[in-house]
Predict the structure.
Amino acid sequence: MAKELKDLTKSEENYSQWYNDLVVKAGLAENSAVRGCMVIKPYGYAIWEKMHDALDKMFKETGHQNAYFPLFIPKSFFSKEAHHVEGFAKECAVVTHYRLKNDPEGKGVVVDPDAKLEEELIVRPTSETIIWNTYKNWIHSYRDLPILCNQWANVVRWEMRTRLFLRTAEFLWQEGHTAHATREEAIAEAEKMIHVYETFAQDWMSLPVIVGHKSPNERFAGAEDTLTIEALMQDGKALQSGTSHFLGQNFAKAFDVQYVTKEGKLEYVWATSWGVSTRLMGALIMAHSDNNGLVLPPRLAPIQVVMIPIYKGEEQLVEIRNHFEKLAAELRAKGISVKIDDRDNVRSGFKFAEYELKGVPVRLAMGPRDMENNTIELMRRDTLEKETLPLEGLVAHIEQLMTDIQKNIYLKAKAFRDSMITKVDTWEEFKEVLDTKGGFLLAHWDGTVETEVAIKDATKATIRCIPFDAPEEEGRCIYTGRPSHRRVLFARSY
């Protein structure tokens, strides 16, 4: 790599620092002046936009519409659902005043003590309360159901230990909130949406995930059931990458949202909520990238092909640029995004390193000899393989390569994930595998919150999920020895 970019920490030396370096040096995000908040830079935001657009299309194809709800939530709303307030109370940012004034002592501005709000406002950590207060006005009859809303928004959770994308005080996300006439319909909705996330993770992010139910202790605050997709990062830690919640009638009862059935009876509405956030950016980075920088699946790469001319003098540059522009037009016609980097203030070696760092899937380079031979040098980012190819048939080759790279990144991540799933049967084995190998551990658990908490306290490992496809299997809990009917998935996590 170019000297200027070589100081990327090696992942095997310090994975955490490697991640931080990569986020900053690849131009994805940086820390802001506000503690715990981040600035998402244009390149990072371009990836998020691709995620947003793909997911948004999938939501609309499943019948959902976008709406927008207030950033501020009256404090009294949170007291209506006991589990919900308990789950979020420690993370809430609170607005108490609405005005500033000049400091009488001339020291800038101070909060005006006369401008105290009658009721404090919570900056939304999630929107169930404000949305269900709104749904009360929208829902009167079975004819008003279902309501299938999604919002793209920012939320605030006052985290004390923050990491870019993975855990920040403010982050971007989407949150779906749906209302249904029956329990069955709401459960089907929650299941449908977790599979939408599963498809997105696999088809767009090249990220293999395990789908399952959260244990009672790990459920969303106020949910009867939480479904999750769990991914494995290259350091052997799990990352919860999306959740979908069956909320029962908890929020409908809290906000008195009832509807008149076809039979003329009053019934409480059934609810779901589901969401993914900019945390997916962290998953994308940690699941695929290497010591040279990002490795991006083509479907999420802002630049899919970069073209770099190698030349001496303006005449050669003009000639190479003409070749590139013709090629770029053909690629763009196929829906492939292209950048021609003909900057003359940095060397081609620096450019090569820069686009490796940024994870551009395909790099093309052309010099005078290539022009003579009607060839071009192609390098694919996922394998770092180089080859010299004829210009003829190149567009079709690159088009196929986009599919091949997308698939290869997925298969590599899946092979790694599968190699890191270990069945364990004893407490000693559990601890040993956790400390020496990491990854996902399939183990028996007695089904109690007490045991789950005890295992977490002893090892920092949590139940990531009870997989949908977990077979019935009689066994003994690794911690208590009590009977268990299936294995669950444990891991240390982000």
Observations:
- Residues 394-419 form the longest helix (26 residues).
- The first strand starts at residue 29 and ends at 31.
- The two ends are 30 Å apart (CA to CA).
- The domain at 298-404 is CATH 3.40.50.800 (Rossmann fold).
